[in-house]
Write the structure tokens for this entry.
Amino acid sequence: MGTAQRSERTDAKPNVLLVTMDQLRADAVFDPAISTPTLDALRNEGVSFLRHYAQAAPCSPARAALYTGTYQMNNRVVANGTPLDARFDNVALFARRNGYDPVLFGYTDQSIDPRTVADPDDPRLDSYEEVLPGFRPVCHLPSIDSSPWLSWLRHHGFDPGTTTNAALTSEPDRPADYSVSAFLSEQFLAWLNEQHGPWFAHLSFLRPHPPYGAAGEFARAYDPNNTGSWITPTTKPHPLHGAALSLPGVAAPSDPAEIGMMRAQYFGMISEVDHQFGRIIAELKRSNQWEHTIVILTADHGEQLGDHGLKEKLGFFPQSYHIPLIVHDPFHQNGHGEQIHALTESVDVFATIADLLELPAPAQIDGISLKAFLQGTTPHGWRTAAHYEWDWRYLFLDGPSTIVHRGLSNHNLAVHLTNEMAYVHFGDNSSLCFDLLADPTWRTLVVDPAKILEAAEGMLLWRQQSLERTMTDMLIGKERTGRWPSPTASAVT
């Protein structure tokens, strides 16, 4: 389809491009020392939400909240491998029943509900890397040996090894044109050039997710001796923090030089995926689709990157949950270039997409539309706290069992974050409360009992006001009282 034909498009329905960059922490996007020209330009042509938080970690729980618009306490996806209950609606099903053919490039990391599978040997029960219901995978990119990226590398004369992880680890040894991000971008661009009408696409980049090795020249773009400072652990860590500091998979290196190398590779991965995403933005503009396309750029969760002695994503510190959100809406330009300091959450994304498409949002959604910010105004009575959760019961699941372990529910935490305090409540009824005014690094505790009570009451109020509501705001009867769901809005059918 040529440029001229696209420019003559008269339909009112916009394109929607939902982009995730895996494990991208917010401060990296706004750090002038890290080269992100594509995201910088997107910020100028959109609205940046500077205090945006994921609702959970790791990947599956974080994405379940993003895709369904629900808090973890409602969707109950608590680990990589926790099934997503088929009763939940999601952004792909929503788009499909409203006239789009939602397509996926990358992955969604959502496990199928086993109650919907008749065959106990169904291969979809063998991996949590299934595709979210509603998406049509044009290029599914799970981290398994049969990844199409590996085949692509072999076609171009490279020997990537026998596993995706091996190919990722060796990315610094190949030109960046053959990175996993380059491959995904190539697949998306080929598809994009074949579109003749409104489309809805999810572009799910793997980088800057570990292993910590940037592609090609980007592996050498940053000096490991000049990657900034990081937050050292407190001398008296909470037992959960202390346990994490002793685990090889999540404890950061003890050698500052090794931390510098890790951070340099992480920064390089960010610059490289920014470069590849820039090719897509350029094509949208070249083909005159930019003015018809809503672009939402975010992450699933963050990355500790040495802060508090940790790497990866876990626990209660904000580095694992504070993520970027940039929205380019060509139909509401009053807010372009604005930076929003209000607290926003991943659960707001689904609500925002529905609002921008001028469609009613599913009743299950816990989030709030951000459309008013995009229009250049501030919504009245906006939230004064952000929330996220982390559940580590999976560490205690060992083999098949029919026993209900009620004690597993002790292994979780929830965070209530305001401008002044961060209250962390654990499933065993212990708690922490950090004084963010005195110390924004989360190493100083609140000592005033009245302040701690205020924070605890704030969390309790959030939980009470955020209970699942799909069927609660309606009454069965001839009068059809309340908010009734659409007959086609069921995620199960």
